[in-house]
Amino acid sequence: MSNIKVWKCLSLFCLLITLVGCQSKEEQLKQTIQQSIQTADAELAQLGRALENDSIKNAIVLKEYANILKQQRPELTKVADVIAQDATKNGALFSGLQQRLTDIKKTYLIPPYEETLLNIDVLREAAKPTLFSDALTDPINMLADMSNGSLARIGAISQLAEGEGEGNQLVGNPNYGNWQTNNNGISFWQWYGMYRILGDVFDRVEYGRWSKRRKYSYYNDYGRTRYSSPKQIKTQSALETRTRQSYQRQGKQFTSPYASKKTGASGLSRSSYTPPKTRSSYASKSNYSNGSGSVRNSNSRTSRGVSRGK
């Protein structure tokens, strides 16, 4: 009997040690999350100051493009002003990062903690000035396409080389709008808030057609993982699945908008060509697993400079 009691005591002791160890690990994760949030807060504030001080290269270019376009095409003044907001803290791109950090602060004490840490890591990468500057090539190129060739695209194949169509660089980016599905099951792009004015300038975009013929954009080909929240990635995946199933029922072929990287980008920072950093022990669990961010090379022609871009 004594041996049995000793064995029970040892088992209970081991169980207590295990429980204490688990609690300790959980507390350590919470502390790491809190520290990471503080760091992300500081880095995001630093990015905001850089925008205010005109220290972000492509933010300067974006403002310059907007001013030139307003002079050349006064009828597009309101549109240019709206798009140029991304060169400031009031723009959708910066505001999107702020909102993601706010959401993390509200839920960081809710498991899984490892996934929260990964989300913060990705957010911190998106707040890097070099990457944020690269992300601004989309609104820059949107203005370039409206300039009738007087402004060059930045970090992308020229409009002439890519072919017809303009103003689609921000389509599919949840910082600017979302896909609305009508009663017939067809999804169209709907611009958010102040960006609704873009709907008066550009043709209505249907998801299936856009998905099949999507042209290059920094967000869709490089930045989707970094500049989307996990919830936004899940929403994109759900729409893709739903549309594919609808096409199959109709006997039509569906092409994922993210099936392949579009060619034509160059001049981006090295960070943009590098997949987002992950904590390898739990990266596979993340909702970012379907995001883009892989390295791709391009030998396609590009346009550079402020003018002669068509």
General description of the model:
- This protein has 310 residues and is mainly alpha-helical.
- The chain has one domain (31-290).
- The protein has twelve helices and two strands, in the order ααααααααββαααα.
- The protein has helices at 2-52, 57-72, 77-84, 92-107, 113-126, 129-135, 137-145, 159-162, 207-213, 218-223, 230-249, 270-273, and strands at residues 177-181, 187-191.
- It has a two-stranded antiparallel sheet with strand order 1-2.
- β1 (177-181) and β2 (187-191) form a beta hairpin.
- Mean pLDDT is 85; it is low at 279-285 and 290-310.
Strand order of the largest sheet: 1-2
Task: Tell me the series of helices and strands, N- to C-terminal.
Answer: HHHHHHHHEEHHHH
Radius of gyration: 23 Å
Main sheet, how many strands, which sense, barrel?
2 strands, antiparallel
Oligomer: single chain
Number of strands: 2
Mean pLDDT: 85
Poorly predicted runs are: 279-285, 290-310
User: How many angstroms separate the termini?
Assistant: 91 Å
Quick summary:
It is built from twelve helices and two strands. It is mainly alpha-helical. It has a two-stranded antiparallel ribbon with strand order 1-2.
Fold topology:
Layout: H1 2-52, H2 57-72, H3 77-84, H4 92-107, H5 113-126, H6 129-135, H7 137-145, H8 159-162, E1 177-181, E2 187-191, H9 207-213, H10 218-223, H11 230-249, H12 270-273
Helix pairs in contact: 1-4, 1-5, 2-3, 2-7, 4-5
